[in-house]
Design a protein that fits this description.
Arc Repressor Mutant, subunit A, seven-stranded mixed β-sheet, DNA-binding, 2 domains, alpha+beta, homodimer
Chain lengths: 238, 238
DNA sequence: ACAAAAGTGTTGTACTTACACCCATGA
DNA sequence: TCATGGGTGTAAGTACAACACTTTTGT
């Protein structure tokens, strides 16, 4: 065996830091929004950023993300609440030192105004559009992470029953359709959507309740599955 | 704002190391195989493992993976050859120190017997089945990484034109079908598969050549697209 | 009665599946 | 001639998109 390179010992080099960044999606006012925090530390002090922070020595990666989310925004979550998006580690992504960040994403029903804590000055829920269009710049490479998370979300709506997790209680089929329309930025045929989701077994459970509607015929109310599951046939996006 | 937690400075703690692990799939002898190296260092000295190694201070994550692949197995690759699978960072995954590893995967046509180099004693191409069944144990959490990469590969065959990248030159449609059958572990109808891939525009380019067949009617030879692209309609796996 | 939203019917097209069958070659 | 794999034909079944239409409520 030949060894053309000298042995590399990670102890010889300045340390890496490992962090997490978290994208939490919700729908409010018929727009897709994400939970953001205003930084209270340099670099990017006062800039908006994804919640997140450094992994501690004996901490699991997902646990870090859940802890930071709780510290910075008071949102408490279950294990497996977050889905891993990937690792972001360009050498220059943090001016202080080399940081590799593991990004996660999740969906929550519309929630109470978040409370800030930890390293965050404020926590707020802001439209994803505003970030992607550049009107709302984010710290570090967080706009790229948010953009990648959005694609993961759009794809998950095609392939899984995830959409129901945007709902906090029993919902109408048109509420579910609205989720698709908001996330995909495209209108869907109400009749065809109705059939599609009703025919998919294991997705909706009819509560027997109906809305006392403000306008139009009352709608049946449904609940989603207890766990997000893959769909046999996708809900076609195009 | 309240700060219930003391500020955390990553410099206060023992450093993390960031590494990469790489899954390279190929098909040989009608079996799905992966490139593995035999470790020449503790821990897990002499055990089989995925190729990979530590990220250097000024190195991009994908660049690390490509460099390690070249050092350990002499396989030279282009940028964007690798697809990121995710980050693996359980606190106890490496007994020496805290290591977070970013995993990548890729497909190559069957290749010459790989040459070992760097930290690897040997490099070889071994059946994925043998790892997943437990007959061939791997170091660290590499069996889990390989299993996750296999699922990503199976899914990519459904949704993209990736299958052609298993072929080194012009190929028959039945060669392409064999890729699906080997990766999915399931036989496909030859006639229907033929129509499906021929009708998908942007996938196959007819070279005009045919095989001088050993048995049966000669087959047209095709080449794949220059870039892997998503399919409008998936090749259904189930 | 009218507006509005829920939900069902209908029809054409596209795709999938199973499997029969023909085609072109080597032995 | 036969065996072998390449490739096409065909028909049933399924799914989807477009859109008309009926149902059930509030005003």
């Amino acid at each position: 065996m030949t060894t053309s390179e000298p042995a590399y010992d990670p102890h010889d080099f300045p340390p890496f830091a490992v962090a997490t960044d978290i994208v939490v999606f919700t729908i409010r006012a018929d727009r897709l929004q994400a939970l953001l925090v205003q930084r209270n530390e340099d670099p990017y002090r006062l800039a908006w950023a994804l919640p997140g922070g450094f992994v501690r020595p004996d901490e699991d990666l997902e646990q870090t993300a859940r802890r930071e989310l709780a510290e910075e925004t008071r949102i408490e979550t279950e294990p497996n609440f977050l889905t891993q998006l990937g690792a972001y580690g360009a050498p220059d992504r943090d001016p202080r030192m080399r940081v590799v960040s593991v990004a996660w994403w999740a969906v929550v029903p519309d929630l109470a105004e978040p409370e800030a804590g930890g390293d965050a000055l404020y926590a707020d829920i802001l439209p994803v559009d505003d970030v992607l269009s550049g009107r709302l710049p984010l710290a570090f490479d967080h706009a790229k992470i948010l953009s990648d998370a959005l694609e993961a979300l759009r794809s998950a709506l095609e392939e899984t029953t995830l959409a129901t997790t945007f709902q906090s209680g029993p919902f109408r089929i048109s509420d579910l359709r609205r989720v698709y329309e908001v996330v995909w930025g495209r209108e869907l045929d109400p009749g065809n959507f109705q059939r599609k989701v009703r025919q998919t077994s294991g997705w909706l459970a009819d509560t027997g309740e109906t809305t006392s509607s403000k306008a139009g015929r009352p709608a049946s109310l449904f609940t989603g599955p207890s766990k997000v599951t893959p769909l046999d046939r996708p809900v076609r996006r195009s």
